[in-house]
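Batch job 17 of 40 flagged for manual review because the log was empty.
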Amino acid sequence: MKLLVCISKAPDTTAKIAFTDGNTKFDENGVQFIVNPYDEWYALVRALELTETTGGTVTTITVGTNSDDPTIRKALAIGATDAVRIDAVPKDAYYVANQIASYAKTNEYDIILTGKETINYNGAQVGAMIAEILDQPFVSLATKLDVQGNAATLERDVSGGVEVVEVNTPFVLSAAKGMSEQRIPNMRGIMAARTKPLHVIEPVASEELTSVVSYSMPDAKAACKYVDAENAEELINLLHTEAKVI
């Protein structure tokens, strides 16, 4: 079984966020980056579990510059067979999806796995776009994946319950919480990652469908107001006059 796992970097959740060039670019200076958790914990780990059971390979693919290499090596340390980096700045979701799909077309992967979203942009678009470009089935927000031969059974949470989906390979999925458990790379994996193949390839020509107009920080949190438990009238008044629906 040949599996392709889409990997992207994301700022550590403790990083201080700032913008440059008139608030049109994210300032990466001094920011600690990690592998996007949904890509790592769920998509990558489940892919590794499948190949450990049935055999096969797990290749990670990233659209990015050499600044992405440390996060790619982290994925290799966890257990991926090899990695591909398309040497381009990830300009928008369509651009990224087009680069990945173009590579996948010529390599015939059984399953392409992505995290459900990245924690920095939360767009949840790339997986569906890859599937559309490749004309393959797409299962979003999958929480369970089992494979028998070329048939796969997936589960995904829906309103009021769980939906079970059956699909034949090849297909694309986005993985959500529940798919697998986080793995911590051990020293053997870290040492092996230094010599595992990381193939850098040139991007294909592709347009971008969106552009950033500006970034802005969220409003600072307002101070809390405390209302006496016996004073329901004041609470009702504050809910009518000051509370905001988000």
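Reviewer: the log was empty due to a logging misconfiguration, but the result itself is present. Helices lie at 37-54, 69-78, 93-105, 126-134, 187-193, 232-241. Unflagging and moving on to job 18.
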